[in-house]
Write a structure and sequence with these properties.
The protein has 172 residues and is mainly α. It is 65% helix and 0% strand. The chain has six helices and no strands. Helix 2 crosses helix 3 and helix 4 packs antiparallel against helix 5. The longest helix is centred in the middle third of the chain and has 45 residues. About 3% of the residues have low confidence.
């Protein structure tokens, strides 16, 4: 997407002398705590020169222009942070897709197999594999299986993890 051409009020104005603009640039660089006095101090000038800077500030609207510049920097920073978050979200979603692919491989068995049916070893191995995958991507750490072991199925275990993740996302 092409960015709109924006008039940047903090750039040199056509009627602004090079020296006045240099002083304004110094004023800008001082950041949010900027002042005419600080510009004078940076230049090693006395109070008389500060009065000259005040006239330039008034004539060329330094306060408004520096405020525009600050807003521009904030917006640019927020946009950059948003792009970083978008890239992070895309990376996380990619990791989750990979984890789901791995989980599908782990779950490639009869979904209704119950621990009570004599398949406890297979189920426990699959549950450990699920834990490894989830821990690898940092989503959740399942400390122990649900309490009712006799009714435990792979789908029930994954559903339990999913429910814990949803509660965590809701702040619960």
């Amino acid at each position: 997407m092409e960015e709109k051409s924006v008039h940047k009020t903090w750039e040199q104005l056509p009627e602004e002398s090079d020296l006045a603009y240099q002083r304004f640039s110094l004023y800008l660089q001082l950041g949010p705590d900027r002042s005419i006095r600080k510009v004078g101090e940076k230049l090693g000038k006395g109070r008389g020169y500060e009065k000259h800077l005040e006239r330039w500030s008034s004539r060329y609207n330094w306060v408004q222009r520096s405020g525009d510049y600050d807003c521009y920097l904030i917006a640019k920073s927020l946009k950059y942070k948003e792009e970083i978050l978008d890239r992070g979200m895309a990376r996380l979603l990619g990791m989750m897709d990979k984890a789901l692919d791995e989980l599908e491989g782990v779950l490639d068995m009869d979904n209704l197999m119950r621990v009570g049916d004599g398949a406890a070893t297979v189920v426990n191995q699959k549950l450990k594999a699920i834990d490894i995958v989830l821990n690898r991507i940092g989503l959740v750490e399942q400390k122990e299986a649900p309490d009712n072991d006799k009714d435990l199925t792979i789908n029930g275990y994954v559903q339990n993890i999913y429910n814990q993740m949803r509660l965590h996302d809701k702040g619960g």
